[in-house]
Amino acid sequence: MFIERQRGVTLIELILFIMIVGIALAAILGVMNVTTSRSADPVRTKQALMIAEGLLEEVQLARFTRCDPSGDVDAAGNCTIPENWGQAAPEPVGPRPYDNVNDYVNAAGTPVAAFNVGGALADANGRALAVTAYTATVAITPEAVGPGGAQAGAGGTAADTDMLRIRITVFFDRQSLVLDGYRARYAPAI
């Protein structure tokens, strides 16, 4: 006589199956939670990059002269109002965009929040940008150029140099994004 075995799953097999599926589901949901909670990060980083590029472009497009545009050059080629770091006297104080690259900072290599108006980032006309939780600084440093890197004021603090490194740093979400650019003086006499 042949006895057929009963088919189906035992209670122990069913409990083990539910435990395995539950653990796998918890792991998948945990990964999805981490992924979705950080999905806005690339957008914030791209927005910080766009802000940095815009601010760097503003600084790079400013004049880079030895003489303040409001002054004159005498017959000997000397400036009546020489450019210096910041807007120090006798240079007239003006709003952004400044009349010269080195007006954005008060000293070489020292970061300044030159783009903030009332605690918020602002465009070149002084209007607040429609972004929140971003701040930015600019630092301008003389750089060496030419054979052997020899240049008066390079790597130091002199405003009378032919090459500047412009560093824009945008801070957001406990992170920072740094963008460097250079500005060369193409009219060395004035």
Question: What does this molecule look like?
Answer:
With 190 residues, this protein is α+β, with helices and mostly antiparallel strands. It contains two helices and five strands. It has helices spanning 11-37, 41-61, and strands at residues 116-117, 120-121, 134-142, 163-172, 175-184. β1 and β2 form a beta hairpin. The longest helix is centred in the N-terminal third of the chain and has 27 residues, at 11-37.
What order do the SSEs take from the amino end to the carboxyl end, as H and E? HHEEEEE
Helical content band: 25-40%
Order of strands, main sheet, comes to 3-4-5
Cα Rg: 30 Å
The main pleated sheet reads as: 3 strands, antiparallel
Number of helices: 2
Query: Helix/strand/pairing class, anyone?
Result: alpha+beta
Q: How many strand elements?
A: 5
Shape descriptor: rod-shaped
Mean pLDDT: 83
Query: What are the segments in which pLDDT stays under 50 over at least 5 consecutive residues?
Result: none
Q: Number of domains in the coordinates?
A: 2
In whole angstroms, how far apart are the ends? 114 Å
Percent of residues in beta strands: 15-25%
What's the gist of this structure?
By secondary structure, the chain is of the alpha+beta class.
